[in-house]
């Protein structure tokens, strides 16, 4: 494949945009080669400016459950655009989308829309602190909750890719209130509670971690977490910015029996438009301005075009929940094929699937937390990524990210992907 135009575009971008990208993971720093600059998407495919076509397993990092240019979503966006892009005033489509979300999540009585996952989590944390009157929060190493100050501590995703899990520019005075525990290790959480006599406002977790690769939380661990939060009057927040409507129609909450106090949602509820949301029981949400004293706002919050896209996507999913069975089967078919390809050249690989989310690590032991993730062979991943890209397969460009299946991806495309994996691994091991 030729990447000449993308290489030139990256050089141009570099002159005016830091690192040439508007979000660090896009820079291909954890893998080989240059990021293809994308011209357009269609169904399961991405097309770059050199004219290369790829089967897209990134899906804009999750939101595109129906693939690119879905006709229904496109029509609702165009219809909405024709009425105006933004009003900074209430619209009925916000209420409609809120009603859909509330009807799907037992844990949510009320929801507020914002413009990104970062904003959703930042606002939820503020609300949790305001509602409990406590400063401390607890997060898990390797989980990523967006880039707000309190949460840029031992985080996954781009921070893990760049080997800087915490960021300069965040005052230590702020992060001293962020306690860290180990994913799937309840003793580490107990220790944080024991060491915090002043109390903890909230525990935030990706119930299906997707920002250190795909690492789901054990059911027992989540139950123990719930019990600890109850015992200490601490709010449990499920960050479902990635897993919401991806892992199942009810996100992780369709898989675990554990019910959080608060939920954050993001990109998936906007079907590719910039959006985020946070929700909780009515008495918690009543603390939020203008009902309550905890301030939170946004000029473009509840943007009508994003709401229209999200509403169409959610209604399509709700009308046909069997989609999740199909997506899950394809994801399983894919990782089983990848594993067979790895076995064929005696490369250890562990895989996992939750709904349409899939992950694989070049590792010979189960991966349950960030320390396990760090043991996977990242150099091999980098080579594998390049070989797959050259064969028209667009995988997430970091071993700390998750893959996604869309309804546009067919069994034949999975076969093509598995064939590419055999060829790539054979080439690497030759
Ligand atoms: C679980 C989780 N929380 C929060 C975020 C932040 O969302 P955004 O990138 O839209 O700010 C992300 C996505 O990156 C995410 O996966
Ligand atoms: N892991 C992130 C989202 O899920 C990757 C997207 C980004 O930060 O640009």
TrEMBL record:
This is Glutamate-1-semialdehyde 2,1-aminomutase. Its main location: cytoplasm. The modification N6-(pyridoxal phosphate)lysine is found at residue 267. The keyword Chloroplast does not apply. Its cofactor is pyridoxal 5'-phosphate. PROSITE patterns: AA_TRANSFER_CLASS_3. GO terms for molecular function: glutamate-1-semialdehyde 2,1-aminomutase activity; pyridoxal phosphate binding; transaminase activity. Its EC number is 5.4.3.8. It comes from Sulfurovum lithotrophicum. Homodimer. One of its GO terms (biological process) is protoporphyrinogen IX biosynthetic process.
């Amino acid at each position: 494949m030729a990447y000449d135009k993308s290489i030139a575009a990256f050089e141009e971008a570099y002159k005016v945009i830091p690192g040439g990208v508007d979000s660090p993971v896009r820079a291909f720093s954890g893998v080989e080669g240059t990021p293809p600059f994308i011209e357009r998407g269609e169904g399961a495919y991405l097309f770059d400016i050199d004219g290369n076509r790829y089967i897209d397993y990134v899906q804009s990092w999750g939101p595109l459950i129906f693939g690119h240019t879905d006709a229904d979503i496109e029509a609702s966006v165009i219809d909405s655009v024709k009425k105006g892009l933004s009003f900074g005033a209430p619209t009925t489509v916000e209420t409609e989308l809120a009603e859909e979300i509330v009807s799907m999540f037992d844990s949510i009585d009320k929801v507020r829309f914002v413009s990104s996952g970062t904003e959703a989590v930042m606002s939820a944390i503020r609300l949790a602190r305001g509602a409990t009157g406590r400063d401390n929060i607890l997060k898990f190493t390797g989980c990523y909750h967006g880039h707000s100050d309190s949460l840029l501590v031992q985080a996954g995703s781009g921070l893990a890719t760049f080997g800087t899990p915490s960021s300069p520019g965040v005052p230590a005075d702020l992060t001293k209130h962020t306690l860290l525990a180990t994913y799937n290790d309840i003793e580490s959480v107990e220790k944080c509670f024991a060491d915090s006599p002043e109390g903890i406002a909230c525990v935030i977790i990706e119930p299906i971690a997707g920002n250190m690769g795909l690492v789901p939380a054990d059911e027992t661990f989540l139950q123990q977490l719930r019990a600890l939060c109850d015992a200490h009057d601490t709010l449990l927040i499920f960050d479902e910015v990635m897993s919401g409507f991806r892992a199942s129609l009810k996100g992780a909450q369709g898989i675990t029996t554990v019910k959080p106090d608060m939920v954050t949602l993001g990109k998936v509820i906007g079907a590719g438009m910039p959006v985020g949301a946070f929700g909780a029981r009515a008495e918690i949400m009543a603390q939020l301005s203008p009902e309550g004293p905890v301030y939170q706002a946004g000029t473009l919050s509840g943007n009508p075009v994003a709401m229209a896209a999200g509403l169409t996507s959610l209604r399509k999913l709700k009308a046909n929940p069997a989609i999740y069975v199909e997506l899950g089967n394809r994801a399983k078919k894919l990782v089983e094929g990848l594993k067979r390809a790895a076995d064929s050249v005696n490369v250890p690989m562990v895989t996992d699937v939750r709904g349409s989310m899939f992950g694989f690590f070049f590792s010979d032991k189960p991966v349950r937390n960030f320390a396990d993730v760090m043991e996977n062979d990242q150099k091999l991943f980098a080579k594998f990524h390049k070989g797959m890209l050259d064969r028209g397969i667009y995988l997430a460009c970091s071993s700390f990210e998750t893959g996604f299946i869309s309804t546009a991806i067919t069994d034949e495309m999975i076969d093509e992907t598995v064939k590419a994996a055999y060829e790539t691994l054979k080439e690497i091991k030759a």
